[in-house]
Fold:
Amino acid sequence: MTIALKVSKLKKTYKNGTIALKGLDLEVKAGEIFALLGPNGAGKSTLIGIISSLVNMTSGDVEVFGDSLTRQRNKVKSHIGLVPQEFNFNMFEKPMDILVNQAGYYGVPRKIALERAEKYLKQLQLWDKKDSMSRMLSGGMKRRLMIARAMMNEPKLLILDEPTAGVDIEIRRSMWEFVEEIANAGTTIILTTHYLEEAEQLCKNIAIINHGEIIQNTTIKQLLTTLDIETFIFDLDKQPSKELLELLDAEITEDNSIQLDVHKTKALNDVFKHVDKLNYKVLSMRNKVNRLEELFYKMTHKEDQEMEKQS
Amino acid sequence: MSNTTLTALFTLGRKEVVRILRIWSQTILPPAITMTLYFVIFGNLIGKRIGQMGGFDYMAFIVPGLVMMSVITNSYGNIVSSFFGAKFSKHIEEMLVSPMPNWVILFGHILGALSRGLIVGSIVTVISLFFTEIHIHNMWIVISTVVLTSVVFALGGFINACYATKFDDIAIIPAFILTPLTYLGGVFYSISLLPEFWQTVSKFNPVLYMVNAFRYGFLGVSDVSIYTAYVVILTFVVVLTIICLTMLHKGVGLRS
Ligand SMILES: Nc1ncnc2c1ncn2[C@@H]1O[C@H](COP(=O)(O)OP(=O)(O)OP(=O)(O)O)[C@@H](O)[C@H]1O
Ligand SMILES: [Mg+2]
Structure:
């Protein structure tokens, strides 16, 4: 099995003293879609910045398809396409020019660059915007423009830093399709996201970073089983009584709504039985929070507690 | 040089030139207007009272100086605003992620600066024809000095843009260093008019050598030895190039 990305003992301390990566190790196999998860400030963008030569590493090494960043930087660069977290194109240029120039920087001849630009602008539904001023594009369009730009050198490894942030559900789905299509064509993909659904939809393997270290490197399935408690909100037809709250071990969130934790292994039937017995109707029911946030919270909490214990 | 490197260089150079032409009302028109005013005021109105300078009409004397001044400020201004602009809005990252070598990034931007310097310089030269005749003593000296000087100031502007973190930083150097050096660099006068002490001080000003070498190309007169001038200019080109490439290699002001 070819290894697309191998990160070894990677450390990064920013000039202001912030330690963003503390000797991080990571491996991503070729051909897969890999998700990098972690709370804000965990070090995801720093890691991506180093891999794509936008951030200097403090120590360690990165290999992309066997080429070392410290020894063969330009070769590594030519393997990679990057979609950064923040917009980083010239807002006063046209999408077409942005793409063709980017291809040119990679050494793609102009004729081929024009063809590729057309292909990817069409695939990402931006063709009718090719000659608009980029700053006129909507947020989602700008993000797709960056994806098209990252494809201009037809990279072996495509890295997407929060590609679906601020993108509506329809476009998000079409972006997922696009990513899967590219992956099927043989491109390895690494993406960061704050949506568990996205990782679930696209990836088999994931890694979770916290405080500049990998704290989990596993399959998404494995990860989901660790999410053993789910929080539900029930909207009832009338104000819940104390009795009901005690029976369910729930609390009131709004007038007629209650919130309760249910262990994954336990059936919801018992809950409904109690509600039924006391003559309530459940008008609607939903999961409470972004599951990923909850997961981070639990994991990072556990980690912090362990650190406290040690000290 | 490989084909991919050439493509990258051509892409960047082309982009820079397109940028200059696209915003011509900021890049080309203002210097043309300013220089026309200089010709009218210094050359025509005041110049008539001044009489001769260095053995020529004052107007004929200052034309090379003014052309050089516009080349200097526009080369510097172009690279500083283009490169700092790219840093500020982050599209410099388009170049940094690509495998284009550092010298291509540098040289591509210099091509832009050179183009603007030469476009403006040519326009100013053409405008000057309305006010005076132009002699050409040695075409090769004219061309080589204007190109080399443009490169020197492009390199200087590049360093300025690398270090700059805010727009103030790219205004300070031109205002406090570039303008005084140019105005005191023999654009408007021959340093033989100065007291001996100030003549010596002037010789520490690199712009003096550039302006005089350029003027020599037109008029055949110079306050300094033409050989010394070339040595000074070429030394600046080499030293500044090394500094720029080292900064790019380390990512000074570009990579955190
Ligand atoms: N240029 C910088 N200079 C100094 N510190 C920085 C810089 N960039 C990031 N940091 C710090 O490094 C740490 C990691 O930041 P990073 O951007 O890598 O996090 P992230 O995982 O991408 O977070 P998010 O999910 O919010 O994008 C943070 O503490 C951040 O404040
Ligand atoms: Mg980030």
User: Anything to note?
Assistant: The CA atoms of residues 32 and 123 of chain B lie 7 Å apart. Chain B touches chain A through 27 residues (CB under 8 Å). Chain B has one domain: 3-250. The radius of gyration of chain B is 19 Å.
